[in-house]
Amino acid sequence: MKELIGVINLDDELDQLNELTYFRCGAAVPFAGRYRLIDFVLSNMTNAGIVDIALFVRRKYRSLMDHLGEGKSWDLDRNHGGLFILPPDWNDPTDISQGDLQHVHNNLDFFYRSSGSHMIHSGSRHISKVNLREVYKQHMDSGADITLIYKPVAELRPEHEACLRMDVDEQGRVTDIHKELDHPNLYMEMFIMDKYKYLELVKDCIAHGKNHFFQDAIQENRDRLKIGAYKYNGYHAVINSVESYFANSMELLCRENYEDLFRENPIRTKIKYEVPAKYLENADVKNSLVANGCTIAGQVENSILFRGVQVGKGARISNSILMQKCVIEENAVIENVIMDKDVRLSGGVTLVGDSRKPFVIAKSSQI
Description:
CATH architecture of the largest domain: Alpha-Beta Complex
Largest sheet: 7 strands, mixed
Helix content: 10-25%
Number of helices: 9
Keywords: Glycogen biosynthesis, Nucleotidyltransferase, Transferase
Number of strands: 28
GO molecular function: nucleotidyltransferase activity
Strand order of the largest sheet: 5-4-1-6-11-8-12
Pfam families: Hexapep_GlmU, NTP_transferase
Number of domains: 2
CATH superfamily of the largest domain: Spore Coat Polysaccharide Biosynthesis Protein SpsA, Chain A
Shape: globular
Distance between the termini: 50 Å
Protein name: Glucose-1-phosphate adenylyltransferase subunit GlgD
InterPro entries: ADP-Glc_PPase, GlgDAde_trans, GlmU/GlgC-like_hexapep, NTP_transferase_dom, Nucleotide-diphossugar_trans, Trimer_LpxA-like_sf
Radius of gyration: 22 Å
């Protein structure tokens, strides 16, 4: 889709997942057995045919760069265009930009060299399957200056408290943006607008000492901008805490939720070739997601196992998430636990968390 370029801005995404973000940014956190959170927004963009995508990162991005590489898994390893991972590089002594505006100011060449006339701007905390072609069509048909994507939710959850809300009139115009906790229209931190209009607003914000594009350019100019709204009704999850990560991961064990997320349009990720999962004589696995390369000799129920997990004989795992290459030795017991990569749990040890507040073990720990 040559008309659109993509910008994934991680500047405002702080390390909200505690132990899971000790060594990585939130966008690089593993999810659903074989993916990273960044994969979903990136796949939405590439599924729409977007081939010029900038990723603005500021901190803890080594793991993200290792995962994305040159973008080959998303068909973005191109001679012209492709994926541009843009860490901070502030070499201009005259630069007065602040906050997320710095990324734009210091990477203007990306915008000017990209052929697309419009841009889709997103973070990575909202997991969805938004059809960006439809968003673009509605935006162009409406004549709006900017179109915000929102999700009307039937049930408000704790992770929604941090989300901005939108009032939308019958004509699909945004009349207000606020944080009323009982309001169901969640702004998904995703918008589309003319590329040059965007750069014009960024320049104006910098000149006036502002530091946050959405707040200073959009919210404060609601009366001057024609703001449209795109209503999204598909799968949606907000990952902004350990609790929301755990709850939304566990809900994927429900077939309906899993199919809503993965049934249409592929979610692409870094390819890692592994042997199939091996179930030994005493293995007992129920209602779980088990990735390639796992070896299971114990009991696994209502759990998610990433690649290469080893479960020893007599071990019991329930309602838990075990990331890549965790080792659970014989007769160990875990329940309501999140284990980051390369954790080893000694034989006979018991770890029990709460379903509302799981026990989290940091990467490469030995217990």
